[in-house]
């Protein structure tokens, strides 16, 4: 597995474990909700993951972006579709989103090569 | 037409006109891009409008939310689908999004009664 | 009851009801969590409400600020303590927080006169 | 004086007075710094007010925008210059800044007619 | 001393020195205010540091979070209390705060092991 | 060339190329606008770059800050002027901007030594 992907996933898993181990009820429920929100419903998981991604881009959180890029890739989002998500994010959020888009396109390429 | 809808649309149109009349090339191009971004492409206009809406919600801009609610309604987004967009926005953006969700559900109801 | 307080509370209650009536599981759980988070725990409700207030101030959400001002008042926060919360918010969040502080001090005065 | 300008200035002055009367040392120093920052220095007050305005626009604070529009007008900023500030704000900050630009152009017109 | 803590503190100290050496009066006063704001007053330093921390979390600034984690640790904040601060931050600020919470819990563990 | 400058520029150039190669019309126009916005106009390029910098600081984007620091340096902005831009950013945006100011002063020193 690519080093960047591996590092991201391992740190994420290890720290999530620490957070859950601290046994705070609110934190645990937030983690639980985070899983439920993206399940199939009136909207497909694919659309919801795109919604999660664009939100993460305009709020400019690189780790959240990576996570949703992985989920979008699993859901079969194509590169042309991805570029249109990037376009909405950069239009609505402004050029301040460009550096995050650079890191996003790099990670998108990596996870598509892995697949 | 409902007074809230009428007021929102008229102020928006009048001020957009003033901005365009000032004839600044960058501002005109941004307005132009704003139209092009949501056109049918690899993603449907419906999906893109949902992306625009969720971005507006997490960035907490009431006027942008109203605008995309109208567009989503034109694209046939149902109330169940809308509630799932609200859910993603409130999960990712936090409870700070709730007051905007209150105003969104009010406006969503109004424009659906108008339709 | 003061008109500003009445209007804020009534709109809030009416729209919360609409949101809950739409019966989206994620939204309902977020509302539920919102109540649980501020309950007595390792930290007192008083401290948690102050944490909720300062977060609302630096994120600049007037309705959230009003809500936590009411809760802080119920918890016996004094005006001197409140001013120190305002100070942290304006220092960390910058002068962009000042207009929200103006509206906060007005509302704080009103709810203290009501009490 | 135009009603919108009058209302903005009076509320601002009255609430600033309340904040200062509460006699919190940190708040008073922040207000004091707010005055000093925009004084003539290596950069002119005109340039600094433009910096204050563009910051207020990308952070999307309408009252801060109004305040700096007034200061820019006092410093002789022209409408063509103002449109270029709006352009930078809308490019960097994204279309989420457009609704604030609508309110800004309205206020800019009013204060220029007053002058 | 742990490498992460050492690196953070040394870079912070070295750059603060550069900023102060540039001898800009406003920057110096902001640094000065930053110290005064958290002093004992109507609220204890402990509560104020918790307010500073939660503000840093919802505004998502990792360096500010580290700084206030250190101060909270000095003030005797327990891990159970810390988890409740994290809970408020993640509820109000949304899941976008989770990656910062991961880095926070790692740093919190390190500085508690050092102590 | 300094390693930090080299790394920043090379990654930026390589990823911009990838984004443009993906051939999304909206993204290409946003990049194009980004160039046009800062051209000489009613305001000088120097002033516009300062506006771009202060916006990047209050929105807290390190890569955007680096980019505009380079452009400001090319436009002859002095260190005294730069400190006053930093002062506006830290006043308006709050102490949350300080960590970005630390990285900014480090980069500013590097690019001035290169020059």
Provide keyphrases for this structure.
mainly alpha; 6 helices; globular; AhpD-like; homohexamer; 115 residues
N to C succession of SSEs of chain A? HHHHHH
Assembly level: homohexamer
Separate helix tally of chain A: 6
Biggest interface, and residues per chain? A-B, 30 and 30 residues
Q: Using only CA atoms, what is the Rg of chain A?
A: 15 Å
The low-confidence parts of chain A are none
Q: Major sheet of chain A, described briefly?
A: none
Share in β-strands of chain A? under 5%
- How many beta-strand runs of chain A? 0
Domain Carboxymuconolactone decarboxylase-like (chains A, B, C, D, E, F): 25-105
GO molecular function (chains A, B, C, D, E, F): peroxiredoxin activity
Protein name (chains A, B, C, D, E, F): Carboxymuconolactone decarboxylase family protein
Pfam family, one (chains A, B, C, D, E, F): CMD
Write the layout of secondary structure elements.
Six copies of one chain form a homohexamer.
Chain A: H1 3-21, H2 25-37, H3 45-58, H4 62-74, H5 79-93, H6 98-114
Helix pairs in contact in A: 3-4, 3-5, 4-6
Task: Describe the structure in brief.
The structure is a homohexamer of 115-residue chains. With 115 residues, chain A is mainly alpha-helical.
Overall description:
- Chain A is mainly α and 115 residues long.
- Chain A has one domain: AhpD-like (Up-down Bundle).
- In chain A, 79% of the residues lie in helices and 0% in strands.
- Chain A contains six helices and no strands.
- The termini of chain A are close together.
- The model of chain A has no long low-confidence stretch (mean pLDDT 97).
- The interface between A and F is medium-sized, with 19 and 19 residues.
């Amino acid at each position: 597995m690519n080093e960047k992907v591996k590092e991201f996933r391992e740190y994420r898993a290890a720290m999530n474990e620490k957070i859950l181990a601290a046994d705070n009820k609110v934190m645990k429920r937030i983690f639980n909700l985070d899983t439920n929100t993206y399940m199939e419903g009136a909207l497909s998981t694919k659309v919801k993951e795109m919604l999660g991604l664009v939100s993460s881009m305009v709020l400019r959180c690189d780790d959240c972006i990576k996570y949703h890029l992985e989920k979008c890739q699993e859901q079969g989002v194509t590169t042309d579709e991805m570029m249109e998500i990037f376009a909405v994010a950069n239009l609505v959020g402004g050029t301040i989103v460009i550096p995050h888009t650079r890191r996003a396109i790099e990670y998108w390429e990596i996870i598509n090569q892995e697949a």
